[in-house]
Amino acid sequence: MAFTGNFMPTSFKVEILKGVHNFSTGSGQTFKLALYNNSASFTAATTAYTTTNEVAASGSYALGGGTLTKVTPTSSGTTALTDFADLSFTSATITAFGALIYNDTATGNPAVAVLDFGGSKASTAGTFTIVFPAATATGAIIRIA
Amino acid sequence: MFEIKTGDIVSPLVKTSNYGGLPLEELTELCVNRIIGVSETAPPEIREQAKYFRVALERTISEYLSRAAQSERASCIQVCVQGGEVEAANLLRRI
Fold first, then answer.
1. ipTM of the assembly?
2. Does the CB of B94 have a partner CB in chain A at under 8 Å?
3. Where are the domains of chain B?
């Protein structure tokens, strides 16, 4: 199996309506990004974080992934959006094909987004940085229109 | 009936490096991209102004990132020297 694209899990959409997730910077929850090898097979049906096929700990990358720095949700026109600061793992030897953003605070570590890197991305004793798209109405990583 | 749509997720960019951190140029680009974006649909005169501002921003950020790296390296060298690790300090000086 392999990554087959970016997905916003259906379970996440349900959880938005249930008020499970809080992306606010102050009172919000902790969201993490975990990296995976090409055996991971996440889809829109993915519901939660898993250690299966996660890349090994290396440098500043620990199992479970890195904590994302949130940007308080805002709006642009009629679109609501939120964003994260770019995330870097240093002194790391990593080969990853994609990532999963998940809520580390909510029960069961529910999935927020499946990210497909479009191929193998590797660092050797170096820095592995995930650069999020611009926080606009058409590009922000999480948008509701 | 109201319909709420979650937009398609735009793929993140991944930057990697081997045997060290990202080069200053890439860090500068990442920083500037976070601060300023120029819409393709913006009026030409606004686009030109934004591009000019972007170039000026790149110069300034690059300069200060470079100073920050030098300052951090100087601190690391002093930590090594005070800890009796002269060889390590000399290695850091050669970067």
1. 0.88
2. no
3. 24-34+42-93
